[in-house]
């Protein structure tokens, strides 16, 4: 390995090209995942990618590289967890999906919640448009890996795509109403001003609109109809059992 390549890897961290290829190969036009095909054909590839995160991370990584790596890590780890339990109608059918410290990262085992909290501490609310927890109401899983040198543009683009998807958020400027994801309720304190955030990223948003929150659909974001009938009652029951 050349000194220049080694220095580049120290600054940027894990190579995300494998994850990029898998996203392009197994996502459909609606950003749903073909878990069945991925499990049959490329489970080993995603394992090899995640193995890159297990060893201690370079301390010299740039903040943008760390943020991109954490987003990719979260999303890939969620997908791998679903593959380990597939077929399953919701991530909430699995054991402690977000709190279980079962993923080896940076030399120790951590949970999905720990990865998310590390990202939240970076103070960038756009990460909520990038993290995908295998649910139908999640923001769209991007068809490419996040990378440090394009991260801001990628996050802006995914935020706009998320807010423009009328199945996930809807803005009625004429009536001054906004029907938005529960994410904006759960993580309200991560947004300095929802009014400013929506004015910047949402289509047809009228400042001062009244905000209502849509029921979050926790059925699996699978390319098939698996998870389509997973109800709010199912979620409430499973969340109590598997939290």
Write the layout of secondary structure elements.
Blueprint: H1 3-12, H2 17-26, H3 35-41, H4 43-51, H5 63-85, E1 103-105, E2 108-110, H6 112-120, H7 151-164, E3 170-172, E4 177-180, H8 183-186, H9 194-201, E5 210-213, H10 232-242
Parallel strand pairs: 4-5
Antiparallel strand pairs: 1-2, 3-4
Helix pairs in contact: 3-5, 4-5, 5-6
How would you characterize the overall build of this protein?
This protein has ten helices and five strands. With about 240 residues, the chain is mainly alpha-helical. A hairpin with a 2-residue loop joins strand 1 and strand 2. Helix 3 (about 35-40) crosses helix 5 (about 65-85), helix 4 packs antiparallel against helix 5 and helix 5 (about 65-85) packs antiparallel against helix 6 (about 110-120).
Instruction: Give the DSSP E fraction (strand runs of 2 or more residues).
Output: 5-15%
Backbone shape: globular
Query: Rounded to an integer, what's the Rg over CA atoms?
Result: 18 Å
SSE class: mainly alpha
Largest sheet geometry: 3 strands, mixed
Q: Quaternary state, please?
A: single chain
Helix content: 40-55%
The average pLDDT score comes to 94
* Whole-number count of domains: 2
Straight-line distance between termini: 44 Å
